[in-house]
Amino acid sequence: MTTKQSLRIIIDIAMAVLLLCAFNSQLARGTAHIVIGTGMFVLAALHIAINRRWFKAIFKGAYTPRRIVMTAVNILLAFDATAIIISGILSARLIHTTAAYWFLPVAGVHLGLHWGMLSRYISKNRLIIVIMRILACLFFVFGIWSFFDRDMFSKMFLGFSFDYWPQEKPIILFYAQTLSIMGIYVFIAYYFQKLTARFKQTAKK
What are the contacts of 153-157 at 24+ separation with CB within 8 A? Predict the structure, then answer.
């Protein structure tokens, strides 16, 4: 693994951690929320800088269906992030929180489309791969339950702007649920790619 690849992974993990913290209304209040948001903005800028070659090549080469989808998702992600920043500055809470909750599925799909690159660094041991796939399926099911338990549909469609987390519930469950909700879209995007590639290979044969 090169230094650039390691830095890319570290930045992505750091952004995911800050994203989870930003959703915690008890932790990220007032100044803390602003600091976390600023940190995410800086990391996002670094992420863009490291991947600047993608921007240089956006008008070059042929656009395959996969490239069209990836470009559309990247544009949606940029649009959503911009909406979060502007609404945060203007203190438009309903728009800010709605855009933030939409960030979970869009970022999840973005990550899922690039998961193949990350999987290169995972052990090739057959047993470990099987175990990780089973865990991924369990996490996906947990994410589906979390989606309905947290009433994400209402949050994503301007249902309400306040997310309350009962103090009697362990905070680790909050982070696990939030991460698993994004994990739904990582799972779907990644395995949809895998299935599409397999169908193409079968069709060629």
Answer: 155/97, 155/98, 155/101, 156/98, 156/101, 156/102, 156/105, 157/98
